[in-house]
Write a structure and sequence with these properties.
single chain; mainly alpha; 5 helices; 83% helix; 0% strand
């Protein structure tokens, strides 16, 4: 959530320009929600790749059987994206509520 709040603050001028040329509040909200979900989803995929690599190292190095079940991998990705959705709502709503005139004045 903090990263998304910083993103909203840094992009205040961009949000003001988009709203000034006709973007609706819903468009801004979806932009930031999708960005939050993509960021957390990519983090989930990277974690999954690292875990699979670790499992392969354990299988090869220690000769232990092991694998990551598909249901666990899918659950991890769904949870990651859900976290992005839940914690991206407030920054997205904050961005959508910005007044275009005030946002354009922001330095």
């Amino acid at each position: 959530m903090n990263i998304m709040l910083v993103s909203v603050t840094e992009r205040t001028r961009e949000i003001g320009i988009r709203k000034a040329i006709g973007a609706k509040s819903g468009d801004i909200t979806w932009q930031f929600l999708l960005e939050a979900m993509v960021l957390t989803g990519v983090g989930g995929v990277l974690a999954l790749v690292l875990v699979n690599g670790l499992v392969v190292l354990v299988r090869v190095g220690l000769k232990w059987p092991g694998s990551v079940p598909v249901w666990a991998a899918l659950t991890g990705i769904v949870v990651s994206v859900s976290v992005g959705l839940v914690f991206g709502v407030w920054p997205a709503m904050k961005a959508a509520k910005l007044d275009p005139v005030e946002a354009l004045r922001y330095e």
